[in-house]
Structures are given as structure tokens and as C-alpha cells.
Description:
30% strand; 16 strands; alpha+beta
Amino acid sequence: MAARRSSRARRTARRRPSAAPAVERITTRGDWPLDFYHRLLTTPWRRLFVVLAIAYIAFNLVFAGLYLLQPGAIANARPRSFTDAFFFSVQTMATIGYGEMRPVTLYANLLVTVEVLLGMTGLAVASGLVFARFSRPTARVMFSKVAVITNQDGVPSLMFRAANQRRNEILEAQVTVMLLRDEVSSEGVEMRRFHDMVVSRPHTPMFALTWTVIHPIDKESPLYGLSREDLAAAHAQIVASIVGIDETFSQTVYARHDYDAGDIHWNRRLADILSRAEDGRRSIDYRRFHDTVEASDSPRGAATPRKVKA
């Protein structure tokens, strides 16, 4: 049963994107042309290789057609053979120079000069893209699928946890939690507002295994006095982000996760995943990382302090 829950949790985690939700942008301006480079940096690897392959083939097709404009421009090429012109363009762009075919006219030599220049520029851009994607440090931080509201040291608290999935450490890690919700100003204007949520331990010098983030719901908390219905009506969203220094790359990495109102479980507690073997060694059961259990004591006044129940 635990194995089935774990596999189901992994499938759900893969289906749920970590990026910000898509927003339709309505504007009279077109996309900024230079954003094409950013798209190539963020597009999946498979799509990047398809784009590079299409650009490479199209480049050589264009120059093959230009070589055929002047008959006899390529020595040892068959007359009006597009195939020979195409492969001559491939050899020229890559500066292979097998020696079978060569330019023999001024027109062909000028084309070769232009093609080599553009080919070297394109190769530099493609190499830079691939290197930038390989060298970009990324964090492999897993957040629990749900957050819970339960008593912690007698105080109603919002809790979720994160885990470092790599076998290294994130140094000087810091966590930031914010509440986003729809509100109406005193002028009657509806807007999306951000509220900082103070956590009990916002910083840890070494983030190696797991980290349980706790936000006490006291009078200073933006969650104070709110029920689950209030959060759903305000389209509330809790955004958690972790920033730190990857000890392997010595560069800053970050991770982010969102919790909607439906992802917050009330009167539940995160399942215990820490245990100690007979020989004294500690172990962590990541199969229960996303599981919750019923809290033995319900939060007294966590959501609606005016309706306290024993």
C-alpha cells in the first residue's frame, strides 16, 4: 500500500508544474525579439535539438540553392545537382574540406566566405546555448504536496516540509513564505496582495536532508481568523521559496512551490519519516514524505478564533 501511494505521489508530482501558472498577456506590442534566446535556454532539450537541426538544414538548403545559381561554380560537382551543392555547403560550413569539390569562380568564393563566417557564428551561438544549459546550476528540492494546519507547541501553525534530493548540501539556505490573496481596498478596488509569513526557522546553515517549515498562526499572521472557506473565496495561494548555495557548484540555487487553498489540510499532521535503527543510525522514509495523519489535538482557534471548540 505504501509503495502504491509513493508511486502515485511521484506521478502527481510530475504532473504538477512547478512554474508559475500561465497568464494570458493582452498587449499591442509583439514579443521582444531577444526573448528568443531566453526561450532557447528554457525550452526542453528535445525541442532545442529539433530547433538546431531545422536551422542547420535550412541554412545549408539556402546556400545550396545559391551555389546552383551559377552553373559550374563548384568543381567536380554534377551539373545542376542539388545534392552535390547541399553537401558542398555542409563541408564548407563545417570547414571540413575533403578536396573533392571546391569553388572555382569568384561568385562561389564569395559565397564560401559568407557561409564560413555565418557558419562559425552559428556554431558559436549553438555551443554557447548548450554550455549555458549544462553549466546552469539547478536545485533538486522536493516539497511536500500538501501543507497542514495543526497545533505546534500549543500554537496553531501552518506546516510543510522540503527535502534536498541530491547527495550534497545547500549551504546558508533561506526560506521565504508569502500569502497571495484577492482583496478589496478601501476604495473598492479589487487587487492581488502579498503578505509576508514569518516562519519559526527561516535559515539553516546546511540543508542536506529534510526541512520542516513552520509558520505560527498568531495575531500577526495573515492567516489569523481565516477559515478554509475564506481562503478558497479569496483564491489564496501560499508561495514558498528556498534559496541557498550549492556546495558542488558554489553558486546560488533556488526552488519554489505553491500551495492552493485545496492543498492545505486542516487538523492533520505530517507523517513522521524519521526513525532510528537498533544500531543507532537514523533513517528517513521518503515513501511517506507526502503523507499526513490525523492530529491528536485539533487547532484551537487556528482558523476562526471566534468559534472555539473544546
